[in-house]
Design brief:
Helices cover 16% and strands 35% of the residues. The chain has 206 residues and is an alpha+beta fold. The strands form 2 sheets. Strands 1, 2, 3, 4, 5, 8 and 9 form a 7-stranded antiparallel β-sheet that branches. A 4-stranded antiparallel β-sheet has the order 7-6-10-11. The radius of gyration is 17 Å and the shape is globular.
């Protein structure tokens, strides 16, 4: 499946930069649009997926690389959390969008600095164009257990590796972890009692 900006990438670069806004892309893999249109850009954005089954909390976007072809909505990462409204279970992720030129990277693993493996969540690998050299867009995530987040007041670093031998380190600062956990607690408190008591993490949408 190609991202919604894939066809536009086939146009001349200047037209691409003028016409494309990736924030308009919609899809279950991409961070959800906020239900609060006037929310501050650095606030945790709250939305719903799958007909309200999941409350989705997406933290502020941060850059892990320069925007690809100057397109602002590429090469970013963020924390996101899924609350299962049926039982209160929560799943946390470090979500990454990676756009690049050259051979496909096929990101496939994640770990902590201690060597502890994290569950890697592949989302999409999309060929954007191969007219003048190939370009790709990948979406993927690492599952972050809540006990790990709560035990990381100093922040944490997640190391991603790919089948092609690429490596990427994303550092999650402590203030973003605290902000995310506070937003999850607030969302739980605002929901019915059935949602307030956490249970084992649900199988969150990718």
């Amino acid at each position: 499946m190609k991202p919604c900006w894939a066809e536009a990438m086939r146009r001349p670069a200047l037209a691409v930069l003028a016409a494309i806004s990736l924030s308009a892309c919609a899809g279950i893999g991409a961070p959800p649009a906020a239900e609060r249109p006037n929310a501050a850009p650095n606030a945790v954005q709250v939305s719903q997926q799958q007909g309200g089954r999941f409350i989705v909390l997406a933290g502020p976007k941060r850059r892990h690389a320069e925007p690809y072809l100057g397109i602002a909505s590429t090469n970013f990462d963020l924390l996101r959390s899924f609350i299962d409204t049926r039982n209160g279970g929560v799943a946390h992720q470090l979500y990454v969008q990676d756009s690049y030129g050259g051979p496909t990277r096929n990101w496939n693993a994640a770990r902590l600095a201690t060597g502890q493996s994290l569950r890697f969540l592949p989302i999409t690998v999309s060929e954007v164009t191969c007219e003048n050299g190939c370009s790709y867009a990948e979406e993927f995530a690492a599952a972050l257990p809540e006990p790990l987040l709560r035990a990381s007041p100093q922040g944490l670093a997640v190391f991603f590796t790919s089948r092609s031998g690429n490596e990427k380190t994303i550092v999650v600062p402590p203030d973003l972890i605290a902000q995310q956990l506070a937003a999850v607690a607030e969302a739980r408190a605002a929901r019915p009692a059935a949602v307030a008591a956490p249970t084992p993490a649900p199988a969150a949408p990718r």
